[in-house]
Amino acid sequence: MKLNFPCTTCFLNGRKNIESAIDITDDGVYEVKCENGHYSIQLIRNEKYEILFDLGMLALNNGFAREAVSSLASSLERFYEYATRVILNGFDIGAEEVEKTWKLVSNQSERQLGAFYFMYLSMFKEVPTSFPNKKTSFRNNVIHKGYIPTEKEVFEYADEIYNYIVKFTLNLKERLSESMEELFQERLNIIEEKFGRDVSTPSYGTILDKSRPITVLAESSLAKEYEYVKAEYLMYSK
Asked: Which domain of life is it from (predicted)?
């Protein structure tokens, strides 16, 4: 799967807007060169969990139900990591300390989940809602036991994840929007230092796009988003 990048230089110069299709990367950093020779480094503002969720829904739409479950499950896990980092930043914990500590749990999803729960409790002073055990069992049956799910089962699983992530995203945006932006700026500074040049920061309208206004997120639904995916989703190409 590839991500489409329009050339901003062509656009600003009044030329035809040339798009480059580039394989999706793990770190969200892309080296883009259009047909007119314009070169740029771009760091997308979308977090990994957003991209993984999109890949899951695209897989479902293309008939790959089991593969969809894998991407969707990974999306939820990476959201736990992202939310934990946002909260820690909100507590003014340094990035270096966070990175060193995260390495201690990076290969253990249950510990990551526990970290998220207690970080959420510390910040919001309320017990976080847990993801339904029934859906976790469904995920384990698909991934570990070879269960072949129906499209309906996968959509219901995706819908549970979607609503779960949106609920917590609303809380993060209401309380920790500055922390969310600070985390991105830290990543941007690292990338600009690495490449020694300015880096563009496009944002894509993913299904779980956290940049949407709170009112829009609160009123959204996966059913509506999925209809758009099935009709025309032009930010990705094969």
From this structure: Bacteria
**Quick one: average pLDDT of 127-136?**
95
Domain parsing of the chain, residue ranges: 48-237
How many helices (H) and strands (E) are present in the chain, helices listed first?
A: 9, 5
d(CA 221, CA 216) in angstroms, rounded, equals: 10
Q: What pLDDT, on the 0 to 100 scale, is given for residue 6?
A: 83
Is the overall model pTM greater than 0.85, yes or no? Answer: yes
DSSP structure class, residue 200: B
Q: What angle do CA 112, 77, 146 make, to 5 degrees?
A: 115
d(Cα 91, Cα 179) in Å, to the nearest integer?
9
Q: How confident is the model at residue 19 (pLDDT cuts 50, 70, 90)?
A: confident
Coil, strand or helix: which one is 127?
coil
**In the chain, what's the furthest Cα-to-Cα distance?**
55
- DSSP characters for 157-174? HHHHHHHHHHHHHHHHHH
Compute the distance between CA of residue 104 and CA of residue 106 in angstroms, rounded to an integer. Answer: 6
Strand partners, 237: 2
Q: Which two tokens stand for residue 223?
A: 């059913």
pLDDT at 231 > cutoff 90: no
Where does the pLDDT of residue 10 fall: very low under 50, low under 70, confident under 90, or very high at 90 and above? Answer: confident
CB atoms under 10 Å from CB of 163, counted, come to 12
